[in-house]
Amino acid sequence: MDAVKGSDGQNVKRPDKRAERSRRTREKIVAAARELFVAQGYGATSLQEIADRAGVAVQTVYFVFRNKRALFKDVVDMSIAGDVEPVATMDRDWFRAACAEPTAAGQLRAHVRGVRDILGRVAPIMPLIAAAAATDPEIAAQWPAGPDPRYTVQHAAAKSLTSKPDARPDVDTARAADLLYGLLSPELYLIFVRNRGWSPGAWEEWTCAALIAHLCTDHE
Fold it and tell me: Beta partners for 108?
């Protein structure tokens, strides 16, 4: 960013228009790729189709992402985060605000609401990830074996939750993390919302009630 003088004589950073254009272009390409991957599948979608949907030249797609595999990884990452900012889930405002709730029940309500937003974006592409990874070893390598990042997030939430005054004393952090990991899974979300036709709101209400019943002392 360039610096200019403000009315008080202090240097004020001027927005970097080129960087903002680059960010918008990246977001358009990722959004177009997500739409086409969900509609057609990863293998059946070409970079030219993605460029046409995004309204950019295909050379721009190659310049920004190099190849379709890298673009697919960005589609997954943006679906999880909701934007292209490199901020981990546990550093997101919604996650920190949920953990800061004074009660376990309050944290669960805020946490499930935040996870619902993520699952609404991520769950539809989970089958795509599995299918693409099964046919392309380089895509599979983008998600190496090791601790599941989703479990890491739920364990952090569980650690905060089990310290609250209304948390059930007979449920430790590991058990709470397992319950969060299982009930807030993309697979279970898809069973209810896609397969059984529940609304996301109905899923949120049921999941929240189930978790409060199992993790909180006062769940009337």
Answer: none
Q: What is the DSSP string of 67-87?
A: SHHHHHHHHHHHHHHSSS---
Burial letters 29-64, b for 16+ CB under 10 A, else e: bbebbbebbbeeebeebebeebbebbebeeebbeeb
Tokens of 141: 């390598």
Burial (CB < 10 A; 0-12, 13-18, 19+), residue 17, is exposed
User: pLDDT tens digits, residue range 154-191?
Assistant: 999 999 999 999 999 999 999 999 999 999 999 999 99
Both tokens of residue 167?
A: 């948390």
Q: What is the pTM of this model?
A: 0.74
Instruction: Report yes or no: 30 and 65 within 8 Å, Cβ to Cβ.
Output: no
Residue given tokens 């403000």 in the structure block: 6
What CA–CA distance (Å, rounded) separates 117 from 113?
Answer: 7
SS3 141: coil
If 0-12 CB within 10 Å is exposed, 13-18 middle and 19+ buried, where does residue 184 land?
A: buried
Q: pLDDT tens digits for 30-60?
A: 999 999 998 888 888 999 999 999 999 999 9
